[in-house]
Amino acid sequence: QVTLRESGPALVKPTQTLTLTCTFSGFSLSTSGMCVNWIRQPPGKALEWLARIDWDDDKYYTTSLKTRLTISKDTSKNQVVLTMTNMDPVDTATYYCARQPGIAAVGGEFDYWGQGTLVTVSS
Amino acid sequence: SYELTQPPSVSVSPGQTASITCSGHKLGDKYACWYQQKPGQSPVLVIYQNSKRPSGIPERFSGSNSGNTATLTISGTQAMDEADYYCQAWDSSTCVFGTGTKVTVL
């Protein structure tokens, strides 16, 4: 049974750094082809992809936020961590992590999602 | 940057067919997938690799992808299908989501 769960602060102040943890079970990020992604969704708006980390530790980021994002993994703990620096009220959103069981060349779909965590940026 | 465009809304009567389009440059050369998202819930994968249904997704959901357009079709739409739908594809190493379509079952 595959599960993912996001955790982190519900409220951060402008200019602070956000650290979110995705803790998963039911699969291994050591498996060839396996990836974990972070996606966010501002209230009432569309989904926005943020970052991806692969089984071989390759990392990819959305261009618009590349300078602010860092993704990492701890395979032994089954965790993926996303940090976002210099938070702003426009970063207020629900943040999701999702499993991607194969590279884009074979589909690249997200088959399991966490429940999401709402992060509000306000002073 | 690559963009995927969807109609903001689609209305359908119960039992009828709803079609949701997703347009992007040479989208047919990529794999497209679709997610359903109900209010307050996480997205759920309903179509992957253009036309495949994950286990547990009803047969009334189908997909196609050709040219510049991917299409999600809901046949015999039910009230429970009322939700937001998003397409998604990869452009090189960047994931792109569509703008989203709200399906209303009248």
Would you kindly provide a written description of the structure presented here, covering whatever features stand out?
The complex is a heterodimer of chains A (123) and B (106). Chain A is mainly β and 123 residues long. In chain A, 0% of the residues lie in helices and 48% in strands. Chain A is built from no helices and eleven strands. In chain A, strands 2, 4, 5, 6, 9, 10 and 11 form a seven-stranded mixed beta sheet that branches. Chain A has a four-stranded antiparallel beta sheet with strand order 1-3-8-7, with no helix packed on it. In chain A, strand 7 (69-74) and strand 8 form a beta hairpin. In chain B, the strands form two sheets. In chain B, strands 1, 3, 4, 7, 8 and 9 form a six-stranded mixed beta sheet that branches. Chain B has a three-stranded antiparallel beta sheet with strand order 2-6-5, with no helix packed on it. Chain B contains no helices and nine strands. With 106 residues, chain B is mainly β. Chain B is globular. Helices cover 0% and strands 47% of the residues of chain B. Classes of the chains: A mainly beta (123), B mainly beta (106). The A-B interface holds A 37, 39, 46-49, 52, 60, 62-63, 96, 98, 104, 106-111, 113-116 and B 1, 30-31, 33, 35, 37, 42-45, 48-49, 54, 86, 88-90, 93-100.
List keywords for this structure.
heterodimer; A: 123 residues; mainly beta; 7-stranded mixed sheet; 4-stranded antiparallel sheet; globular; B: 106 residues; 6-stranded mixed sheet; 3-stranded antiparallel sheet; 9 strands
